[in-house]
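[job 0412] stage=fold_complex status=start
inputs:
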Amino acid sequence: MLFNSIDFALFLPLVFLIYWFGFQRNIRAQNAWLVIASYVFYGWWDYRFLSLILFSTVVDYSIGWFLGKDLPSRTRKALLWLSLGVNLGLLGFFKYYHFFLDNFIAAFRLFGQEFEASSLSIILPVGISFYTFQTLSYSIDLYRRKIQPTRDFLAFAAYVSFFPQLVAGPIERAGQLLPQFFFKRVFNYSLAVQGMRQILWGLFKKVVVADNAALIANAIFNNSDDYGGSTLLLGAIFFAFQIYGDFSGYSDIAIGTARLFGFRLMQNFAFPYFSRDIAEFWRRWHISLSTWFRDYVYIPLGGSKGGVSMKLRNTFAIFLISGFWHGANWTFIIWGALNALYFLPLLLTKNNRKHLEIVAYQARFPKGREFLSMIGTFLLTTLAWVFFRAENVSHAWSYLEGIFSMSLFQAVPTAKFDNFYLSLFFIFLLLLIEWFGRRGSFALEKLDFVEHRWLRWTIYLLLAWIIFLFAGKEEAFIYFQF
Amino acid sequence: MKKFLIQITLLSVLLLAGIGFVFLQVDGYDDAYYLRFTSKQQESLVLGTSRAAQGLNPAVLNRELNRNDLYNYAFTIEDSPYGPVYLKSIQRKVKKGGKDGIFLLCVDPWSLSCRTGFPEDSTRFREVGSFIDQTKWVNYRPNGHYLLQSYPKSYYELLVDPGKEICLHDNGWLEISIDMEPDLVARRTVGKASDYRRYNLPKYRYSATRWAYLEKTIQWLKPHGQVFLIRLPVDSLLLAIDDELLPGFGDSVQAVADRNHLPFIDFSQEGDYYTYTDGNHLYSESANELSKNLAMRLKAFIENDETN
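[job 0412] stage=fold_complex status=done
writing structure:
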């Protein structure tokens, strides 16, 4: 079920009303209702996927139960490996089977060997990368004795399947989210209002900004041979806003929806396109995944301690794995490697933690140098997005070659693209509102500064109207495929 | 909680009122299909693909046949070939208990062929999931179900002037007003034929399941009135491609007609008498002329039927 669908518009109020009016006094009943709702939400795509999520839940609950016992360290380690094996095995089978098969065949062919392999028709279950990582963090944190195992299967099942963030995150840690299923949840007016605001803002980013930008980005990427450098660069920029609006919009709706049910999820995007360098960008983009990799891959590998070679290895490892996590295609791996290359100079010169606070925190506008740094960082990430969006590596290379040609200075044939200026206007509006809201956890968080209620209501209504009138063609969220 | 619910309800009411207002503005210039899902259930229908949608004007047919109930419920080659999806939609549109209707089933090789590699698997037919499939309620206005699920553009376009090129009349007839300068028409005809030859012909193939559904549609409609099979004229360039796709198509349709004891009226050899916007679709003036000619032939059949 998509957040931007009529199905969800009917589903959410129904679940909300039954949750608060039917089970207000009973946490277990609320949790049970959340599990049922989450399974309906997930099964809406394909009910067969439910067996996977149930299997993953049962396995990690059981392993967690044993990990909580006083067992010899070797047994505990074996249990952790079992959890890693099951979760990564599922992920590997459903997501990477064809990738490995195709590459094995290609490798054999390199040595003159023809290799026939029977292919399987495998459908990638929606959001498998997200809930797999969420359950993995539970087992790893238990192994590290950072958290205690839960005995409450219902609460654990609700934690794994919690519908607002089930299919595209934020990837929550058990230590942060699981305890919330044990505390009495009382309806909180201001939390719910913030939730609705965040949902509204997320919808604007997704259906107005991303879906309209997608029309232009798709037109350019799908016919890239027909266009000159300036248009190709513009296509990459539109894609940069498409993916940002799409994914951060999804996260906003997810976090906002969770707030309606009394839950607090972690911030997943912190205005990444206002970053002044690539290290700051990665602290602000898909935060739940970046921190996941930091805590479970980068630090165990030694982090930024040690010599240059170790720093190099660890940096590349984390970015390559991150790229591979996104998809079974070499384009994602190169996208990861490119970001590692961007990041390395900052790490080696110890400038990777230079910008921890949002730009111009104390000022209304950035300084000239800050502005130029933001533009530079944005362009670097935009060029890397070309690999993310391209069909394959050769498409990405030819696209980049097209950008870095003399045609970069040609005029863009804007008349060829429907709603070009409208889409550009919405991107501008997004940047403007995000700029003034950048000190909050989302752009409209501080809307309370508007004292008059009627004015706030006018803003809500106007935004809702813009969402309705200017929604692009309904597109699935990009990150669902991951 | 109470305060929150009151506020949300108020906001939703304001939003829904606005949506309703926008939806009530939709007319035949905004969308080529919408009005067909807003009219009441019908006693008599014109059925088929876009050739029929543009080629048969119910106003002319009604006038010539002294009726007032014929309604054009034909869509496109993509969305309304004969099959379970279109049949279901027809069943929703036909007035329950009607017995005296007439049903003009326009056939062409494309509406009885499949583009899938599995031409006998109706779950993989191209119209599965289309707006015809999605629109479960076909007779109320405003039809939010269609507009929310299937309207292909942003809704603000409903508030701006769409131009007069496309006009879906209240009786379901789709009229296209474009420049009919002969050179342009010739270019569009060659372009259309070239597209059909390059993109459609290699992909489409005979589907026994679709033919079976044509007969199921006939059988379902028969208790509701008289059923006729019609083959509309097209430009000779397009007719040649039609014949390549399903050679002997006319004979096959005649066989269906004989089996079901109903008339088959074939205009395919009269293509040169009419003008087309692109070789495939009749120009409005020709559509009126053809509708008149068809009405004459129908009259003969109807009178003959009444005499017997």
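[job 0412] summary: The radius of gyration of chain A is 23 Å.
[job 0412] exit 0
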